[in-house]
Amino acid sequence: VVDGYAPYWRLALQREFGPHSVSAGLLGLSAKVLLDPNDPSMSSDRYRDVAVDAQYQYVDGAHTFSSQALYMHERQRLAASFAQGMATNESNNLKTARIGAHYFYQHTLGGGVQMFSTRGTGDSMRYGMGPVMGSANGRPDTTGWVAELDYLPVENVKLALRRTAYRKFNGGTRDYDGFGRSAADNNNWFLMGWFMF
Q1: Residue 172 gets which letter from DSSP?
Q2: Is the pTM above the cut of 0.70?
Q3: Does position 177 have pLDDT exceeding 80, yes or no?
Q4: Contact indicator for 101, 65 with CB cutoff of 8 Å
Q5: Burial level of 171, CB count in 10 A (0-12/13-18/19+)?
Q6: Which of 35-49, 135-149, 177-191 comes out lowest in average pLDDT?
Q7: CA nearest to 95, candidates 117, 113, 126
Q8: What residues are paired with 20 via a beta bridge?
Q9: How far apart are the C-alpha atoms of 75 and 96, rounded to whole Å?
């Protein structure tokens, strides 16, 4: 539950020339989050995100190509969590990067790939041990890639098959959670259908 307001801002510049379009921008968020919304005496944790992003797009006849990149830095001030013994540090950082590209032929067949990475401050209480979502070394570091195949049989309908694969998950590649789980055990296939209106 947000304590007060959670302003989000975005500033972007865009330029189009012929079939090409490029944009670059800044975005951010500042929010205080209540640890226990039923206890007004408890303080809140503060999150501040600042990011830069960019995009390139080419649309010409049968061909559509786009690429995107994002880098985000999050500062966490964990006054409430630290006071309650739910965080080892009063402040943590997360750094997230994503880069990807997509291609469509005749607005019907296409696909894309994306690489992602998150790194952050080690915090054994916040990212502690536990099966599947835990971290044996107390780190949130995660890296991997996503690949997707798309089919748009008619306008407003999209069918897709997506593969997500992890090279690292919650700070490790093997036995990352202390219960014998490997990062690759979180790999998954996702079949989806979208109807957009």
Answers
A1: B
A2: yes
A3: yes
A4: yes
A5: buried
A6: 35-49
A7: 117
A8: 17, 58
A9: 12
